[in-house]
User: Fold this.
Amino acid sequence: MGTLLSQSNKMSRSYTIRKMNGVEYLRRSMAYPYGCIGDEWMGYRLEDIRRSIPVEGEQADAGDFPKNIQEHFWIRPGENDGDSWMACGVLTNGNYFFYTGGCDYTGFDCQGGMSLWVSNSWQSIVDHAMSRGDYALYESQTAVPPVVAAGEEPWPSLTEQEFWAIQRGLRRCHECDQLGAENHHPYLNSISLCDRCFEGYHADRGSRWEEEEVANA
Ligand SMILES: [Zn+2]
Assistant:
């Protein structure tokens, strides 16, 4: 019975690489967490954030991650005190990776954590790095690229506008909690705002900024 259960759990995961069309438009959302990697003071040296894959003895080479990322398959933008950042893909050395990081309202320098799994086997990443919830999210936001002739694009390339029209719903506005937030908060790293709240911040920027200064003092 136990064997049957574990088999059915595994069967729900596919080992065919799935990708998000237009993932490059989300790359900049990784700038903040990736930018903290290597910071010894914050505790995010590469060796601090590496996580081992139980079935693999030796850790696969992560190179100078994240500089050596050849391709992202999927990115889930995060925000302070909200969703974790997640990303997976392949490195220039051919190894696959899965990264996840999260922090409190203030940022990674205050309360935060991040994890990096690297393997030469995509199946190991899927089975041992991604939690059930991580995999479900990855699966729901990606597709298996159709097989095409060399040099052809597997998908029609999306403009950034088209991409956001499809991806609306990935993020919630930090102010009003509505889905579809895609504006960067003017003062706080990696927090997103909907169009309306973003406008509001700009209209009212002086007093807002002062309030935040007082609140953070
Ligand atoms: Zn809003």
The pocket of zinc ion is lined by residues 173, 175-176, 178, 193-194, 196-197 (CB under 6 Å).
